[in-house]
Amino acid sequence: MNYNLELNKAVNEIKSSKAKTVCIQLPDGLKPRAKDIADYLEKNTNAQILIYAGSCFGACDVPNVEADLLIQWGHSKFRK
Questions:
Q1: Which of 63, 66, 74, 76 is 20 to 30 A from 38 via CA?
Q2: From residue 52, how far is each of 11, 27, 70, 79 by CA, in Å?
Q3: Is 72 helix (H, G, I), strand (E, B) or coil?
């Protein structure tokens, strides 16, 4: 299966926020691709990318890490 992970959108967000350290959080199904995703983001932003390898049960399950930006994948968009 191919997924559109919108990596360019993540790159733009990292650049616009001037984040130096970014934590990425992925659901279990995407964790095997974590290194590829991190490498792409590092190459295109020069930010240090941390891969959160713990469990991920949704947007309320935010890891407590020291990072300028947290990016989560695999969750539905929130609507008001």
A1: 76
A2: 18, 10, 10, 25
A3: strand
Q: 23 — phi, psi (to 5°)?
A: -105, 130
What tens digit of pLDDT does each residue of 29-38 get? 899 999 999 9
pLDDT tens by residue, 13-72: 999 999 999 999 998 889 999 999 999 999 999 999 999 987 766 556 566 778 999 998
What the block records as the tokens of 55 is: 């469990």
Q: In whole angstroms, what is the distance from residue 75 CA to residue 69 CA? A: 17
Q: Is 71 helix (H, G, I), strand (E, B) or coil?
A: strand
Domain assignments of the chain as residue spans, ordered by start: 20-57
pTM for the full predicted model: 0.81
- Which contiguous run of DSSP H or E holds residue 40? helix 34-45
Beta bridge partners of 48: 21
